[in-house]
Amino acid sequence: MARTPLSGIQHSLRSGDYEAIISSVGATLRSLTLAGRDLVVPFDADEVRPSYRGATLAPWPNRVVDGTYTFGGEERRLALTEPARGHALHGLAAWLDYEAIDKGSDHVTLAQVIPAQTGYPWRIVVTTTFVLGPDGLTQTVTARNDGDEAAPWGTGPHPYLVAGAGTVDDWTLELPAAQVLAVTEDRLIPTSLESVDVDADRFDFRRKRTIGAVEIDHAYTALTRDEDGIAAVRLTDAAGHGVQMSWDAACPWVQIHTADKPRPEDSRLGLAVEPMTCAPDAFNADRYDFDAGLIVIEPGAEASASWTIAAIV
């Protein structure tokens, strides 16, 4: 019997010149290519997934500050999975091993249960479908509350997009967002919602421009959308080729991270673009004077969100 790779069972999808590989651990997008060109930073199948690369985040994306929150009148305490900053990071599902419940040559549907547990005492069934087509790879995440009490919820993906050769510094970004969430420098705790004009050289990419040396690890909102309600981030190289990520109104926020790492050889290899159904620390929404977008799923109800990654050719 063949040994299962460290990143789980591999699900290979193909449609035309597009190819994608989904790993079962974390319902993770391990690679996505068009005619052999990387659209996301990949990793090896027999490798522990680095830096949440491509993971599906649930039942919250981003951070719960100090791992504590109050919901339904009770204070909850989560495990601190970002020990360097002292937060609960990226939910509870990123290391769960999902089961395939439907699969074809161009699609796969994975499912897993987030069991009721200390800090999050609700049973949530997460189902996610990846569909590869001529317009790229679309992922849809659906949560169903199988408990008898309302549950807080949020989700989002964590791909690192690749425009072409070089690093983040070399690529051009178009990000149609008018507001950015200010955070503390050391622990990235949200403080206030600001216009991107507060530091335009760092944060304002409403008109496409080269990223250069700026360092970003911030959530954006007030997104400009097309007539169908779709927002899109475009990342291109000097020749105009690259990758686009788009999403609908289910995700009013997007986290952008220039992937700065301590080791130069690991740093700024891709741009993390993470559409989110809610703001960072949304489980503590009552602390802030902006709409954090926390979703509350009633017993037996569902909530869904989707996004698409496609090549720019």
Automatic annotation (TrEMBL):
InterPro entries: Aldose_1/G6P_1-epimerase, Gal_mutarotase_sf_dom, GH-type_carb-bd, YihR-like. It comes from the Bacteria. This is Aldose 1-epimerase family protein.
